[in-house]
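Pilot study result, target chain (133 residues):
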Amino acid sequence: MTLKAKRIIGFAMTCGLATLVAIPAFAAQAELSANDLGVNAIESGNGIKLGSGDVRTTAARIINVALGFLGIISVCIVLLGGFKYMISGGQEEKVADAKNLIISGIIGLAIILSAWAITKFVISSLITATGTS
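Predicted structure:
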């Protein structure tokens, strides 16, 4: 590549970079109103409903759903290990790999169940301590 070609490419890249930097400045010239941000849509009751439940109960539900998905994954790992054990054909490497999967799945399930018990205790203690039911 010649020096002239390098300079042309450098100039084009500089112009492109300057354009990318300048575009947001031109686009942000208009004033934002509450309607642009969607505030009026929520206030006017157009079918958009915000949660009216307690934040602690909502957090507990989210945690329960997440732990439920993790439990499903752990059970699937145990099932995969069992399947690999059945089709291993007695080969030591495959049997060891399958046993490791089964043990990992059981350990994961134990961790998930203990996490569920801890979060259930903490959330119920929090709700009891604050006096809400």
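One observation from the pilot: The two ends are 75 Å apart (CA to CA). A full batch analysis is planned for the follow-on phase.
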